[in-house]
Amino acid sequence: MDSPILPATTSLPLPILYQSSDLVAINKPHGLLVHRSPMASDVREFAVQRLRDQLEQRVYPVHRLDRKTGGVLLFSLNESMNSAMQMLFAEGRVHKTYVAIVRGYTPDAMTIDYPLRKDDGPDSNVVQEAITFLKTLQRTEIPFAFGKHATSRYSLVELNPVTGRMHQLRKHMAHILHPIIGDRPHGCNKQNKLFKEHFEMNTMLLHAQRIEFDHPATSERIVIRAPWQSEFERMMGMLFWGNVNSIIS
């Protein structure tokens, strides 16, 4: 059943990254829910609602991003394309690349193969296969004492989820003891407090940087990239100082 139409918001237009007759991608801001959720009943704005009002037509989210994750979010503009894109995602034929800032020095590269339990729905607590490829892009050490350490260390990592489990990247990074900065509840509360106090930073440093797939109708290879959100870019500048764009494909 269609959700009721809400009045158009006064928010700034969502940044359009890609648009065709049957697909559109936005650069979702951190903090914006994709659609209604019983876990956030007080929220009145959603990406689906805002994009629908902006384009003046119905839109279908073909995947989801966590509320606190920014970056590429893809929508279909009709039911047939929505079904085709859902099939691509289900068959693992959509390649997604994320970038995150995490605690500590991560390995140069590794495969995280760690099954995860479902968080919600009728199959809650069912264990599912979950695999993520990690590549370290850059490391940094800053002169902030943390616990018994005189300095604090962080890594900028590229993450490619093979599977698409809820909160997969957040849970996998916590599992290998390199939680994403700003993540709650899977992250490190002490690190999150440090970033809030020293940098006035209160978001999660996870960015959906790129999505790639073959268009279901034309077979054209579609590659959509999202520029950094302002807060993510600010933190990269403070922590890594260099031109990280030159090392991120």
List keywords for this structure.
249 residues; alpha+beta; Pseudouridine synthase; two-stranded antiparallel ribbon; 12 strands; disordered N terminus
Quaternary structure: single chain
* CATH architectural designation: 2-Layer Sandwich
Radius of gyration: 18 Å
Q: What is the rounded distance between the termini?
A: 40 Å
**What is the number of domains?**
1
The backbone outline, from C-alpha atoms, is: globular
H/I helix tally: 5
GO molecular function: catalytic activity, acting on RNA; pseudouridine synthase activity; RNA binding
GO biological process, one term: enzyme-directed rRNA pseudouridine synthesis
InterPro entries: PsdUridine_synth_cat_dom_sf (IPR020103), PsdUridine_synth_RsuA/RluA (IPR006145), RluA_PseudoU_synthase (IPR050188)
Pfam family, one: PseudoU_synth_2
Spell out the blueprint of helices and strands.
Layout: E1 16-19, E2 23-28, H1 47-55, E3 60-61, E4 70-76, H2 79-90, E5 95-103, E6 109-113, E7 116-117, E8 127-128, E9 131-142, E10 152-161, H3 168-175, H4 189-199, E11 206-214, E12 221-225, H5 230-240
Parallel strand pairs: 4-11
Antiparallel strand pairs: 1-2, 2-4, 3-4, 5-10, 5-11, 6-9, 7-8, 9-10, 11-12
